[in-house]
Amino acid sequence: MSAAALNTIPTDLSTYQLTDQFVVQRANKEDLAEVLAIYNQSIPGKQATANLALVTLEERAAWFEEHLDSATRPIYVVKALPSDDVDQNKAPIVAWGSFSDLYARTAYNISTEISIYLHQDYQGKGLGSLLTRWMLTQAPSLGIRNIIALVFAHNHPSLGLFRKLGFEQWGYMPEVCDMEGFIADVVMLGKSVTSDDILDKASETI
């Protein structure tokens, strides 16, 4: 993909079918509150983030806008399809994932950190794997060659998820986070992706 194409921010919000129950699309400016609510659900458990206090809309606004304004570092939201004739645009967000800069230097632009968060009512049902697999298919079109997941060593479900999807351990950082009650290690998992990883069914637009 050309540099010009990579620098072009998508203007549409194409919706992609994940299953009969879920669709995924790039986040828009109205999604911040729901995205933040799911993120804040993860904080008390001390497994998914190093934030120890709930985050406010004001604190998260700049981060959200930065992703919305980026052509290559999107936030994707998963919506649960309504069972009746309710407007799909009003369907609740039940999960989200993002690609973020691994390091703020130009040469690192081919590598990115992936983050996945699920609403507590949708955990343990395979949705995390579904969203992660779909994001892997999108990475090559964003100019991404390497995807890195930074996971607490005590977060066994997430470690299992990424390893099941072919991520390998690329690093280990012992005792780097004070979680106010225990000291946590962080595992760096990585996976290289190419255009060959794109699945036709993941590109089905509705």
UniProtKB/TrEMBL annotation:
Pfam families: Acetyltransf_1 (PF00583)
Tagged with keyword Ligase: no
Entries under Gene3D superfamilies matching the protein: 3.40.630.30
A GO term, aspect molecular function: acyltransferase activity, transferring groups other than amino-acyl groups
Residue ranges of the TM segments: none
Keyword Coiled coil: no
Keywords on record: Acyltransferase, Transferase
Highest taxon in the source lineage: Bacteria
Domain N-acetyltransferase: 22-184
InterPro entries, sorted: Acyl_CoA_acyltransferase, GNAT_dom
Protein name as catalogued: Acetyltransferase, GNAT family
